[in-house]
Amino acid sequence: MNMRAPYLAFEPVDALTALCKAGGDVLRLHILRALTNNSFGVLELAQIFATGQSGISHHLKVLAQAGLVATRREGNAIFYRRALAQSEQHGSLLHAALLDEVDRLALPAEVTQRINAVHSQRAAASQAFFSRSASSFQAQQDLIAGLPQYRDSVLTLLDSLGFAYSASAVEVGPGDGGFLPELARRFEQVLALDNSAAMLELARLHCVAQGLDNVELQLADALHDDYPAADCLVLNMVLHHLAAPAEALKQLAQHVKPGGSLLITELCSHNQSWARDACGDLWLGFEQDDLARWAQAAGLNTCEGLYVGLRNGFQIQVRHFAKPSITHGPRAATTDYQQEPER
Question: What predicted TM-score, i.e. pTM, was given to this entire model?
């Protein structure tokens, strides 16, 4: 995500002073709590804390000078998130302890409500895009990364997991249904979830054309609606359309059976801001460490993954996250990333 923590090279006592100053204000502590698994722009934080933009900017500057927040650019917007303590930096122990204590705080109910409102605004913008763009969906996807460019990599990873045909699969956000035939050949029961009726109709037509009789299509919000847990849950180019990706992984992990797998195909972090308007992307890709950290917070193990280079300058990451088995305990985490050639 092109994260950058603007930590200043202070003397040890100055670093401690900056941390103490940053932590000595109720609003700044609440900002840090709100950024635990989220990133927000200045205007969003002003909305969340019902404070003027200049006031929020001042508090963010103090937090940045103490190395407690990092910034990343999403097109023309700057987003803030918490920066993790770096052991080689002065004050790292105090930094880590402060964030640990902040995580024990409960945000005021009205702040939580406003955070949910911001997420709802993001989700509504994404859903509106797909509602008006269903007919041109494939052409827009092909501008960056169409299914043919990563299908083989996903199938290589999926087949290596050795699921029995009797296992079940869920695909969240199936788009026009292009990947559903592959799942239908490998799983006895396949459920496809989408919160866009227009997109789900495209998937339905594709299933009819392919004669898929073991695929169920459901108009639903995969993060909030109820549906059965699956042995394998698949997200192909979906996470960058979700309002709160870290929280989304927590919700999705609950729908993976113990010993099951979550497969995510996503763009690596990039700076092509035109993707927002052309493809409805809320986020310009993700760093591999962010996905791993969010998955760990969701109770998943980071396993093998693949990278696929594309000629248009984008790069795709195909990631496997495993849910520990109740019987056999967690699988050993691996980071066996492989670079595939440009396509």
Answer: 0.76
